[in-house]
């Protein structure tokens, strides 16, 4: 069986370079590995597009290769991009730690102070009491004010004005906003227009604010994650100034992200026409799909000419050469190595991943997630608030397949001592804990080491790992176990998990990025996922992402 890295290299060799395809990103990633300045630029662009995991992988990899003495400026810039990616991914505490390292390494600049202000705003939103929220807001305002005083920064100045307005200091807010309006505009059209608009909002000039928001919206068409930040701040300010958070919503054009699910071979001309109308009517700007059937290929091919950013997830190597054009035009391509899976397992896993990535992209861009299927929509779409758009009436066979097993399973790797006796003891404990639960057990070797369990669903693997972790922490299992969860195609355990398990902290549940995507899709409220780091960065641009899994009920069981 070909390795994931071999499949990735094979795929990339088959695709021609273009500015919007993943092959273009791959070339730039190769350049970023040689130049810290290129790494900073590419990480910044990835964050602007909402590809925060790519930004993390790029910046973390470059930071490991840098000497602080030799490249202090690039070191601080890379840490800023790491902190920004973590903050936009919801990892506020980790982002704060990264910036604390920057403060120790060198005197703070306006960029670092601005990010610290942003993090305190995030802390304020998550505060449990009004007093804590107000304290964080005031700290955020102080950091922004320091940054503005230090460098007359557009970013710090307007945020200092906004924070003053939000905390009731109207005179200070208007004074700071007028100072910002006197500064020469920055080259970045999005941030420049958004800053001017926000300043006019604070000064009470609604007409000029609207005039400035329109070019900001146009400039954000290719930087949706940045535009989402602008919209969020405008809504906060509008709620205070006008008592209506949607007061300026008409200045932003509608947009949506779509996920497509298909099983057949081809869409009819009538269905393609319906699909094109649906994409235009719902202002879809980004479309995700697997590349596992003719319908899915046509969906991507029909979306791209409409100006929709297409993103593809491949179930293993390129399925068919005549499908290559759909992948060539995709702005982002992911590869799922299905392993020795049962028929259909790798295809279904690619479809799951495409939906999970679409959901993450919609959240990053602050736009609706829409779902469209060729026939029967999959059962896991039932949790989405919007009804799925169906191109044709599903056949009885499709409807049955949509509600039964689909070949996607979860692998739990428990790494214990190398000693055979302790390995056997751990396996005995596992059998006692899970009893007759339908999990397939396997071991990487006969002399000890990791135990691998394949579970029929993501939920089974999560609950099994949680239960085992509780027993380890209570002392009923004496071994120092490490748990790694991974999504797989079919019930065959993935022996490569044993290598990943040796690199993570024992006694906690870790998940790979693929499992994290699917767990977030299934357990948006029940469990929390905390980004740990990226390993195997040389294998592909995204590397292997690792997360910690913990209960979402605040008990800290898996922290």
In brief, what are we looking at here?
The protein is of the alpha/beta class.
Could you characterize the architecture of this molecule?
This protein folds into three domains: 226 residues, Serine Threonine Protein Phosphatase 5, Tetratricopeptide repeat, CATH 1.25.40; 148 residues, Rossmann fold (3-Layer(aba) Sandwich); 144 residues, Nucleotide cyclase, GGDEF domain (Alpha-Beta Plaits). 53% of the residues lie in helices and 14% in strands. The protein contains 22 helices and 13 strands. The strands form two sheets. A seven-stranded mixed sheet has the order 8-9-7-10-11-13-12. The N terminus and C terminus are likely disordered.
Radius of gyration: 25 Å
Give a quick account of the main beta sheet: strands, pairing sense, barrel closure.
7 strands, mixed
User: How many domains, as an integer?
Assistant: 3
Distance between the termini: 36 Å
Describe the strand arrangement of the main beta sheet, using strand numbers: 8-9-7-10-11-13-12
* CATH class descriptor name of the largest domain: Mainly Alpha
Global mean pLDDT: 79
């Amino acid at each position: 069986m070909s390795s994931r890295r071999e499949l990735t290299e094979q795929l990339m060799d088959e695709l021609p370079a273009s500015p919007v395809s993943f092959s273009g990103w791959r070339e730039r990633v190769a350049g970023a590995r040689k130049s810290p300045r290129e790494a900073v630029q590419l990480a910044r662009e990835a964050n602007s597009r909402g590809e925060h995991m790519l930004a993390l992988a790029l910046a973390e990899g470059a930071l490991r290769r840098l000497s602080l003495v030799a490249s202090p400026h690039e070191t601080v810039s890379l840490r800023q991009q790491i902190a920004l990616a973590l903050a936009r991914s919801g990892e506020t505490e980790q982002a704060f730690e990264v910036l604390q390292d920057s403060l120790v390494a060198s005197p703070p600049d306006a960029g670092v102070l601005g990010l610290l202000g942003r993090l305190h705003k995030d802390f304020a939103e998550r505060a449990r009491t009004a007093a804590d929220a107000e304290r964080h807001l005031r700290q955020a305002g102080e950091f922004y004010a320091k940054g503005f005083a230090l460098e007359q920064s557009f970013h710090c100045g307007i945020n200092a004005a906004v924070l003053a307005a939000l905390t009731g200091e109207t005179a200070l807010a208007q004074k700071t906003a007028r100072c910002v309006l006197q500064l020469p505009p920055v080259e970045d059209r999005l941030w420049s227009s958004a800053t001017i608009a926000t300043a006019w909002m604070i000064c009470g000039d609604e007409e000029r604010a609207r005039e400035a928001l329109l070019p900001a919206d146009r400039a954000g068409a290719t930087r949706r994650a940045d535009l989402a930040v602008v919209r969020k701040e405008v809504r906060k300010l509008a709620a205070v100034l006008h008592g209506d958070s949607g007061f300026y919503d008409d200045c932003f054009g509608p947009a949506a992200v779509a996920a497509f699910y298909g099983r057949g071979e081809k869409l009819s001309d009538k269905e393609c026409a319906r699909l094109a109308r649906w994409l235009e009517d719902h202002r879809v700007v980004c479309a995700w799909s697997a590349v596992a059937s003719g319908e899915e290929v046509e969906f991507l091919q029909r979306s791209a000419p409409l100006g929709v950013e297409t993103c593809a997830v491949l179930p293993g190597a390129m399925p068919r050469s005549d499908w290559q054009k759909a992948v060539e035009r995709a702005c982002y391509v992911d590869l799922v190595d299905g392993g020795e899976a049962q028929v259909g397992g790798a295809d279904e896993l690619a479809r799951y991943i495409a939906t999970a990535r679409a959901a993450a992209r919609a959240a990053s861009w602050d736009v609706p997630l829409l779902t469209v299927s060729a026939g029967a929509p999959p059962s896991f779409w039932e949790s989405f608030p919007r009804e799925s758009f169906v191109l044709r009436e599903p056949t009885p066979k499709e409807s049955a397949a949509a509600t039964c097993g689909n070949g996607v399973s979860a692998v739990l790797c428990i790494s214990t001592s190398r000693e055979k006796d302790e390995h056997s003891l751990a396996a005995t404990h596992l059998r006692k804990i899970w009893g007759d639960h339908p999990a397939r057990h396997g071991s990487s070797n006969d002399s000890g080491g990791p135990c691998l369990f394949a579970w029929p669903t993501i939920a089974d693997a999560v609950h099994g790992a949680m239960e085992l972790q509780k027993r380890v922490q209570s002392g009923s299992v004496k071994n120092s176990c490490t748990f790694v969860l991974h999504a797989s195609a079919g019930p065959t355990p993935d022996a490569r998990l044993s290598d990943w398990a040796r690199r993570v902290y024992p006694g906690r549940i870790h998940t790979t990025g693929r499992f994290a995507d699917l767990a977030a899709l299934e357990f948006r409220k029940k469990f929390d996922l905390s980004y740990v780091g990226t390993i195997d960065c040389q294998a592909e641009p995204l590397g292997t992402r690792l997360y910690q899994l913990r209960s979402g009920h605040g008990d800290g069981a898996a922290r």
